[in-house]
Every structure is written in C-alpha cells, then in structure tokens.
Amino acid sequence: MTKVPDTNELIRAAPLIDNKEFEVLSSTVKVEFGGLSHTGKVRPINEDHYMIARLGRDQETLLTNLPEGDVPEHFQEAGYAMVVADGMGGAARGEVASRLAISTLAQLGLQFGRWNLRINERIAREVSERAARFYERVGAAVIEEGRADPSLTGMGTTLTGAFSAGNDLFVASVGDSRVYLFRRGRLLQLTRDQTYSQLLADMGQIPQHEVSTHHLRHVLTEAIGVGTGKINVKVRHLPLMNEDQLLLCTDGLTEMVDEEEIAGVLLRGQSPQDACQTLVDLALEHGGKDNVTVLLANYEIPV
After folding, report:
1. How far apart are CA 281 and CA 182, in angstroms?
2. Per-residue model confidence as pLDDT tens digits over 274-288
3. How far lies 173's CA from each of 9, 88, 123, 178, 288, in Å?
4. pTM of this prediction?
5. If you write DSSP's letter for every residue of 101-120 in order, what string do you get?
6. Closest Cα partner for 30 from 76, 71, 61?
7. How far is 109 from 116, CA to CA, in rounded Å?
8. Which of 53, 19, 87 is nearest to 297 (CA)?
C-alpha cells in the first residue's frame, strides 16, 4: 500500500508563494477537465450531482482611435470551480438535496460572488469567508425546501467544492465527499471526512487506519440540510504547481477503489475524461454499491 503523505509534508515540499513577489496570472493557466457520474449497480437512482464551471472576466476593444498598443484588443482572465454533492435521504429526497445544493451555490455565486482572480492575503481571507457564508445559505435553502414539502423531510447532502485562480486553490467541504491532490506521483487527501468513524479516530478511540472500515464510517457528523442550518464547513487555501491533478469524488469511488489504485490510474497519463471513466469502471468492477461521481482537473501552470 502506497504511503499517503501528511498534508503538511507536501506543503513543506512546495511552500506557499508570496503573491506580492510572484503572481501567476490566471490568463496563463491552462486546465483540462473531466467529469462522470454513474448510478452504480445497487441503488435505483443517482443521488449524486456535480458541476464544473469557468468563471471569467474579459475586456474586448470594439472601436477606438487610440494608437495601437495603448489598450489591449482582447483581455481575458478565468478561474475554475468544481463541485460535487452526494445526496442522502432515500427515494428522491437525496437527489433533490444534492441538486438543490449545487444550483443554490451557483446562484449565490452569480448574485453575490466577486470575481477574485488575482489572489493576495486579504482576498484569500475574503474568498474563504465568502465560501463559508455561501455554504450556510445553501444549508438554509435545503432545510427550507424540506420544511415546505413533507415528502422531502430528512433530506440532506454532502457538498464539496474547489475554486482555483492562477496558482491559488481553495477547497471547501461538508460531509465525506473528498478532494485529492495528485502531485509528482503522490496522492494527498485535502479534505477530512466528517463522519463518526473519523471523529472516533480524532478522539483516539480507534486507530486512523480503521476509519475506512469502521461500521460508523457512513454516518455523517456534518451535512448540508440537517440540524439548525449552522454549517461546519472546512475551507483550505494552498498553492498549485505545474502538472498537478485535482480529483473530487463521492464515497462511491473511495468505498470501492483504494487510494493506491486511484494513484495508479492517475499515473497513466490519460486525458481527464478517460481517467474519470477508468475510475468509475473500477468502482463498478469492485461492486458498484453506491452512486459514484468523479471529477478531475489537470493543471498546466507556467514555471
């Protein structure tokens, strides 16, 4: 079994860059995406949803009598968002919760988001705080929908997202849908499962290696749409490097395919869409006991 390094180990290997001294413009970063979701072999419906979006701002000079070169003919910057949600509640309730969570988050971004595509320390704090506020609004929306329709009572969902601008990456998660960073042949889990088995490990009652097999591993301690709406969202900010790969997935993948196999697939150098297909196929070959969703981004960052 390949040793999965601690988060701080990779951060020390690639220290945070002071954006005041060196800024990777978002316009110079190229990203290739893949995404795939499958119902699996056991469940009757797919309660997973996902979205990949390009967030851009641009300026195009249509008419001017300024000398050539005084203003750009066309300027464009872009950031990228990836979101995955794994609904729970049975029947159609989980499917409604995950769909509503992502659509609400997208609408909040359109209405109240700020197109922060050049990140410094102040803007990084703003992005993190805004993500936490958006997650709380999403939770409130899912709860309100459940109260309005008795057939949806008890629905909830995980919600895990990633936003990148230039070489800055932000990750936000509630539940147990994960984000992995694949860097230089090593797979690193950026999120921490909010489950009772992980809580037991954090309290020292079970060893960490038993978390993935413990009988309480499917019981969430945090989810969107349950409780009072107060969301314990975890937001991280870290740097991206050239040739990094970012993987978002529901537990339909990680329950069926271990991290060594996942890393092996990413080492093959397939296109992101082909790699997503390979990972979903592996989950189905290993039983496909749950819905499975996989998103993958390959980053090309100037060095």
Report:
1. 20
2. 999 999 999 999 999
3. 21, 16, 20, 8, 24
4. 0.88
5. HHHHHHHHHHHH-----S--
6. 76
7. 12
8. 53
